[in-house]
Predict the structure of Amino acid ABC transporter substrate-binding protein, PAAT family.
Amino acid sequence: MNLKMLRNLAIGLFAMLTLGTAGAASAETLRVGMECTYAPFNYKTADGELAGYDVDVANGVAEIIGADLEFVCQEWDGMIPALLANKFDLIIASMSITEKRMEKIDFSGPYRFSTGQMLGPKSKEMNLFDDAGNPIPENFDGLRVGLERATTYASWFEDILPGADVVLYDGSEPLYLDLQNGRVDLIMTNPMKAHLKFLSKEDGAGFEFKGPVVDEEKYFGIGVGIGMRQGEDELKGRLNNALKQLINSGELESYALKIFPFKLHKDEWGQ
């Protein structure tokens, strides 16, 4: 091999290395906000690793669109303000798509159902809903209701049962603790989470659902989606395409089956 060939080879190798370095340097990094305490959807394991359905969705979407992720733990009631303040780029935290929230931020298409249900002690008879599934306001008199602050459950109570004695909490753990200790008479929460993390455990043996699933679209939206700042249409398009790919490939269902014996989405969302 002569000197000219060696020089050309060296130039070629340098160009390849330069392009590779530039590609790595320009890789998109998206900061994702979540509570990190909302098991089984987003939480930290005993080893300090983030896990859960939302985390799997975030990683699955990132792999499809070719982005790196940086997770940011954020208390729930500050989630939207933190997004608007550019503390992170996306909310992937089981946040329901509602008209009220869409006045401030934008959402991808849905990737999980969004519902609520009352939970209370088996020892207390509570006739809270009529046969049509509508709440009976007078039957809530004398009951203290625990709700997580800034949630769809809180909005539903504010509009539908404004006279109820509501106690607001900054997270789900103290909510369940006060239910067990009798500081509140019932709570409204996600029935999937309630079944898996409480009712199926020893601590939840004395409790049960009180009334039907509540899923009014005005309050619970069309489902849970990825939140982002308004005006980011190109990013929204990529996220929507990625979610559809996860649905149609069966990957999204596999995330749910790690936790529940059923999927958490509608197949039509992949169309």
Observations:
- The domain at 26-114+222-270 is CATH 3.40.190.10 (D-Maltodextrin-Binding Protein; domain 2).
- The chain has two domains: 26-114+222-270, 117-219.
- The first strand starts at residue 29 and ends at 34.
- Residues 3-25 form the longest helix (23 residues).
